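Priority: medium. Attachment 1 of 2:
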């Protein structure tokens, strides 16, 4: 018998790349004597000092984890008994310092000529990091499974080759039975679908197999206990390299408890969309040194490429896809991250896709080094909608700021234009109303021309401001049920004098039928404008008729107030330009008063109320304007009120009414003094600013305060606040008197505590009527609060 082969005198060398890493060791053990040899790596793995020498087999086994010792002994016994030349085992090693490492041992067994094992030689490899990564992966998988269960989501797939459906574990709760590991025949599942829903589910199946987009369907399924569950399901096809559908992947959410709550169902559908859309997040990697890139399919789609297109190189990506304005930033940030090894976070940039679209991409990219090569890897998400929404938000803010600036400008322009007009019209009216100074016929005509020109200019100012303000976002209709009869009752008297001057007959039924949902003031403004135009552009001896109509359009009941006339009519070309601001269709050369703004305002007001204006006209015969608005239930009738008793306003009949006028404009003060001269029953005092007015009011509290809202030292609101805060003036009647005529200004003054608000230029007749009303209230025993 030959002598047994002797083991080599030296251990095989460790590969150069692994030297000094402390992750691999080489050993051998003589099975006859038990003697062994370890290299430095083995001592390092066990945390031992090489000077102590190689430990015996039993001592070496003592470093194995207590739970693995017996399995390790069985492994050694198995190697000896079976005569296998090679074997490997994984176990845990507890170092002398107590640290536990996961290792794997590969052994070669040497035999003598009789087949008796005499020598074991092998390597021990530290797999602790790999084991930790595997454990983390298992934990992540378990967490994902728990998250899916907590979200009450069932994940499933259909194998199109076997036509079997495989559920996640949560699928059993929906079916009422645990899902078998080999899946369920598809026909068996289809048999549980409600008969009324089977066609929809089958169609969704076919649509998903034919296309690439996700397909949703809601259907009812019968559980094993006979109850029905309503499920929202989404499926999408997975395809092989040839493009053939091989599987359908899907998710389900149980909507049984929420089918009656459409809003909650919509939120669940959105959540489902978010979950499934997560599969569409773009993934990429890049070799930092070569620029070679890898993209997944969603990333290809994100850039407008086809599924089988190759990913571009880094240089091609930057040149072809990154927006020119973002290239330098993208290159600089990527270069800095490549040098530092730190990830690039919150990195938004624009791309131009292969099909020419511009998209915003959010990109996160990490850095790592593998096998001596540097890589960048990360995700891309389409955030175009977020940027579009942000741009829209900034545009809304810009428009709102511009609207506020426009409102401030309108208020200022109104005040600056109406203040001098107050003097022009006021003194002209005062000249006409002052019975003490008789005017010659020529003078009276001159005054009348001043008033006519001033009123026209004031009308133009008001129309311009109205046109600019009608589309203001904060100007909303004051909705109510408006009787067309009430609109006619208010509008017809306004045009009666104008109709008499033009020799036009205005006709209307005794009571106009119909009630609409509208803003009463806006509708009256529209009706008055249409009636005025029908009279102005009519012929002498002509007629104007006011009517109402009803109809149903798109299932909605509507009512219309109709203005018909026998005037000159309009051609098709004129009707096309009818509602353009300042368009007078050539009649400006005929001397007919007007500025061409009224119809533009009327249409905008009607549209703001959800209605429309329809025009029918024949040249030489006349026109018809129909204002259609949503019908409303008739408003309850108001009870009739008794007229106020007549009051003697002759001099001496009443105790003088004390009036304090706070007005900084000298001309306006002079005008008011002239107007109050027509009412001896009043005692007027004037103040030139807010401080002067407050001092006079506190010293001798008046009955009425006429308060200009634009004072040089204090705003009218501040003067009003101090008057209301002082017990001496808290009960005074305070009337705002201002050239600020915008609705917001008037509303703000009334909300601040004004009892009424009178506008400039002062209409003498209306002003004196208002003053007389105060006198009457005083005479009737009531206070003067309006």
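Attachment 2 of 2:
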């Amino acid at each position: 018998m030959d002598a047994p082969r002797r083991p080599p005198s030296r251990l095989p060398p460790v590969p150069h790349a692994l030297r000094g890493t402390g992750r691999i060791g080489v050993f051998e053990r003589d099975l006859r004597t038990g003697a062994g040899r370890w290299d430095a790596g083995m001592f390092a793995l066990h945390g031992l000092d090489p000077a102590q020498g190689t430990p015996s087999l039993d001592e070496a086994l003592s470093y194995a984890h207590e739970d693995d010792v017996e399995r390790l002994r069985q492994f050694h016994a198995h190697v000896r008994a079976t005569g296998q030349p090679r074997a490997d085992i994984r176990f845990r090693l507890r170092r002398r310092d107590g640290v536990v490492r996961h290792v794997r041992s590969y052994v070669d067994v040497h035999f003598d000529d009789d087949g008796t094992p005499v020598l074991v030689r092998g390597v021990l490899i530290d797999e602790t990091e790999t084991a930790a990564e595997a454990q983390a992966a298992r934990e992540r998988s378990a967490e994902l499974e728990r998250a899916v269960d907590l979200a009450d989501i069932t994940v499933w797939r259909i194998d199109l080759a076997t036509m079997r459906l495989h559920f996640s574990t949560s699928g059993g709760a929906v079916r009422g039975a645990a899902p078998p590991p080999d899946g369920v025949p598809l026909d068996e599942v289809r048999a549980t679908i409600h008969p009324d829903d089977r066609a929809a589910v089958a169609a969704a199946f076919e649509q998903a197999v034919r296309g690439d987009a996700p397909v949703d369907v809601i259907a009812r399924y019968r559980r094993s206990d006979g109850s029905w569950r309503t499920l929202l399901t989404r499926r999408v096809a997975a395809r092989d390299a040839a493009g053939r559908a091989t599987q359908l992947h899907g998710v389900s959410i149980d909507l049984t408890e929420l089918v009656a709550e459409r809003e909650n169902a919509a939120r669940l559908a959105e959540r489902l969309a978010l979950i499934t859309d997560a599969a569409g997040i773009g993934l990429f990697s890049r070799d930092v040194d070569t620029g070679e890139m890898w993209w997944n399919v969603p990333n290809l789609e994100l850039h407008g490429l086809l599924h089988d297109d190759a990913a571009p190189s880094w240089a091609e990506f930057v040149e072809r896809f990154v927006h020119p304005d973002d290239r330098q930033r993208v290159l600089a940030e990527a270069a800095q991250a490549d040098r530092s090894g730190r990830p690039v976070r919150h990195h938004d940039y624009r791309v131009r896709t292969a099909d020419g679209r511009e998209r915003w991409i959010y990109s996160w990219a990490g850095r790592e080094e593998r096998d001596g090569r540097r890589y960048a890897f990360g995700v891309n998400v389409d955030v175009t909608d977020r940027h579009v929404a942000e741009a829209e938000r900034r545009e809304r803010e810009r428009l709102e700021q511009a609207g506020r600036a426009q409102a401030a400008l309108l208020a200022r322009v109104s005040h600056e234009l109406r203040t001098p007009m107050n003097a022009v019209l006021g003194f002209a009216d005062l000249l006409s109303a002052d019975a003490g100074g008789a005017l010659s016929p020529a003078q009276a005509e001159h005054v009348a021309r001043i008033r006519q020109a001033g009123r026209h200019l004031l009308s133009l100012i008001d129309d311009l401001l109205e046109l600019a303000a009608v589309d203001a976002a904060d100007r909303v209709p004051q909705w109510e049920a408006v009787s067309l009869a009430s609109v006619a009752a208010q509008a017809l008297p306004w045009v009666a004098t104008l109709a008499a001057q033009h020799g036009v007959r205005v006709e209307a039924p005794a009571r106009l039928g119909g009630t609409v949902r509208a803003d009463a003031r806006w509708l009256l403004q529209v009706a008055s404008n249409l009636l005025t135009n029908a009279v102005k552009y009519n012929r002498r001896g002509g007629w104007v008729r006011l009517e109402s109509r009803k109809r149903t359009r798109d299932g909605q009941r509507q009512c219309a107030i109709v203005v018909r006339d026998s005037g000159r009519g309009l051609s098709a070309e004129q009707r096309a330009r009818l509602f353009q601001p300042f368009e007078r269709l050539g009649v400006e050369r005929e001397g007919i008063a007007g500025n061409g703004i009224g119809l533009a305002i009327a249409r905008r007001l009607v549209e703001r109320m959800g209605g429309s204006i329809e025009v029918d006209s024949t040249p030489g015969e006349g026109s018809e304007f129909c204002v259609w608005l949503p019908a409303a239930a008739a408003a309850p009738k108001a009870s009739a009120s008794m007229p106020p008793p007549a009051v003697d306003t002759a001099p001496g009949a009443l105790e003088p009414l004390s009036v304090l006028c706070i007005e900084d404009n000298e001309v306006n003060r002079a005008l008011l003094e002239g107007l109050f001269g027509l009412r001896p029953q009043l005692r007027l005092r004037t103040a030139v600013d807010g401080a002067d007015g407050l001092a006079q009011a506190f010293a001798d509290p008046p009955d009425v305060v006429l308060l200009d809202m634009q004072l040089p030292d204090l705003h009218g609101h501040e003067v009003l606040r101090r008057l209301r805060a002082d017990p001496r003036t808290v009960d005074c009647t305070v009337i705002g008197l201002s050239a600020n005529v915008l609705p917001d200004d008037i509303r703000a003054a009334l909300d601040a505590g004004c009892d009424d608000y009178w506008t400039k230029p002062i209409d003498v007749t209306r002003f004196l009527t208002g003053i007389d009303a105060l006198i009457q209230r005083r005479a009737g025993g009531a206070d003067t609060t309006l």
